[in-house]
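Methods, example record. To illustrate the input and output format used throughout this study, we show the complete record for DUF4442 domain-containing protein. The sequence lines were provided to the predictor; the line carrying structure tokens was produced by it.
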Amino acid sequence: MPSTLDLYQKTTALPQGKRLFSILFSQKAPYFGSIHLRVREMRPHYAEIAIPKRRSVQNHIGTVHAIAVCNGLEAAMGLLAEATTPKDHRWLPKGMEVEYLAKSTTDLVCTAETTEADWAGAPDVPVTVKATRKDGTVVVQGTIHLWVTPKR
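The corresponding predicted structure is encoded as:
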């Protein structure tokens, strides 16, 4: 079975490939489909997705709901983990700490980033995540902690 990164590289080489990959990725964890994510980039140590501001992700005041934003951050983290985790290891999220800094009033871009040094501290790997509005304002930032261990 090809890795998620292999699938991303193959599908994004096609016309509408990022759209196709986004649909396939959303099927892997069906709750990602609820935020209508679009994968923008996936590579070791970095992933980026977009969440369109649609009625289905809005709260009672018309902003993107905090949990929808967290789903986007987790999706970005998952792409990063799939691209960065050694093939003989597995990863599991073990916690998330986030700060809500501003209203999510537009489409959002969710990013996840790590460094080689972060992975050198395995099994506990911190992933820095943030969600940004169209105007560049960071609306949510935090850390998702991964548990990375050898496969048995």
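Annotations derived from this record:
The chain has a mean pLDDT of 95.
Helices lie at 4-11, 17-28, 66-84, 116-120.
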